[in-house]
Amino acid sequence: MTTTPREAVGQAYDPALMLRARERSWAVLQGIRERMRPGISEDEARTEAAEVFRAHGLERLWHPVVIRIGANTTLSFRERSNPDLRLGEDDIYFIDLGLVFEGHEGDVGDTFTTGADPARQACAEAARTLFDEVAAAWRTRGLSGEALYAFAGERAQAMGWRLNHAIKGHRVGDFPHAIHKAGDLGTLEQAPSSGLWILEIQIAHPSEPYGAFYEDLLVG
Known about the structure:
Elements lengths: L14 H19 L8 H14 L4 E10 L22 E10 L2 E10 L4 H24 L3 H15 L2 E2 L6 E2 L25 E8 L6 E7 L3
Antiparallel strand pairs: 1-2, 2-3, 4-6, 5-6, 6-7
């Protein structure tokens, strides 16, 4: 049990189960990625995702499945997609999953491309690179949640991308983490503890209508 209210957990919390939920969530995400193909819509992709969930023994969702295609990749979690978009031959998309395994929450997200458009490939890779840089700053410099997102904004700009400042990361834990009302990682005035916080990175091209997303558990 942690002593900081924003890092409170339940009696069932087990760090090992958190890591296992993370690992299994990434496996599910890859299973959905394998089904993504030109011509598919977001609604169709979510329908097929349900088949992947069954194959992996998913316990439940803790947030709705988010799959964004093309221009919808610039939208944040609560914004509504244009439902008419279908994945193109040289396109970009991301998958964002909040899954529960063994009573513990996984939350993973990544961006992929179809075809060989170098600009979209660079965008997807930049989200991963920026995540890695921010996570490394947490591990080596002990930055607070607030400082991590300030650093993310500076690095995104230096890399030539726009950071979506509305995306601030959040808590996870033994389900449901929401009872602890921990707020966003980006408002945390202390260094986040390992295994409790999701670092979310969403960027957009400075002038074109597409972006990329990456998220994972901060682990030391």
